[in-house]
Known about the structure:
9 helices
Amino acid sequence: MNTKTPFLGxxxxxxxxxxxxxxxxxxxxxxESPAPTAAPQDCGFAGPRTCFCPxxxxxxxxxCAGGMLSSCECPVSGAGPVSGLMPSGDPTQVCAxxxxxxxxxxxxxxxxxxxxxxxxVLDRSGSMVCNAPPxxxxxxxxxxxxxxDANQPSKWxxxxxxxxxxFVGLSGGTASIGLSLFSSDGYCGVDSTPIADLxxxxxxxxxxxxxxxxxxxxxxxxxxxxxxxxxxHHLHEELHxxxxxxxxxxxxxxxxxxxxxxxxxxxxxxAARGRLLTVEVQKARDANxxxxxxxxPGSEGARGFLSxxxxxxxxxxxxxxxxxxxxxxxxxxxxxxxADFAGVLQATLGKIGGKALGCEFKTPPxxxxxxxxxxxRAGGEPVCFPxxxxxxxxxxxxxxxxxDPAGNDDTTRVVLCxxxxxxxxxxxxTRVDVVLGCPMIH
Length: 442
């Protein structure tokens, strides 16, 4: 049921030839967390547990017995369970760098690229009706919430135009996208379901998203906390929100609603922000939900809070960014001082889309750390990428293991970074293989 209330409460092929292991991608938000899957030599308590299947859903089962963990048994409609990933039937071929390093006993397996579910949470509070700098300052907008220059677009018009462009950039791939707005009632309301629900980013969904924004206009307060928490709950509860899941918050202000819908109670506003930062963000991370934050002109006063939210949400722009709640916070995408707000916003949303889609592929069970990643085009000779553990945003060019919410390597997924990712995305005939059992190329 849709309720309005202030905040209250790319195709890849995988190559294997070793033993089996695996680990889930996250724990459930607001429910019992599945036990983590450990390495084969120490898989913890005996008995069954849940695991993630190639479609990104936590629908499989595996068993720990005698210290060894079985492969993930995933349901297949009409065919019963299958073990792990499906064989491709293609002959195995490894890159030249691996051919002289010993037998890999390799077998090819098919796996889809890890999908992404992205829920945009857009601020439609009354201040979005104002012009962006340099045509109107944030101070002027706070004094008179109206557009200063009728011949210049409002922040709302600039933002929705940029979002329509970003949605087009996400189309044609593995992403599902949706949209929530706050406030939803012209006061402090937030909806329990998005105004445009999550769906594959095709022409029909892009039109639905565009129509939803065109039918809305700025009004009401700024219930950031309520809007973000509702987005977390929706992403977790929707079974079709599979794979990697993201909330993208775009706001031009500070939390003004709290738990009471009363922006005049500083203690209540602080309590609301505190709950989001200390409780809800970690629950979301445990459920494999990350939070991107974009602060547009007008959000200057919330810089410290928004920076903390981005850092704790797993999307800090720099691992050494300031996230102590001070006005110097710079972990989020802070666009408040940009002269070309429209242009920079469009570029920023493009960067976020690229990060959310990523170049991420599932690995087959096993490997014991002996992992390599190769690619080939149109059946050509495979070429190996080097393993490069440097941050993707810090110049890494190669592959690395994905990270779990605690920052540790998640050996069930590999991520391509830099030019390696660009090379794969540049040609739809590209085939990516994960090769287990061979010495790692650095």
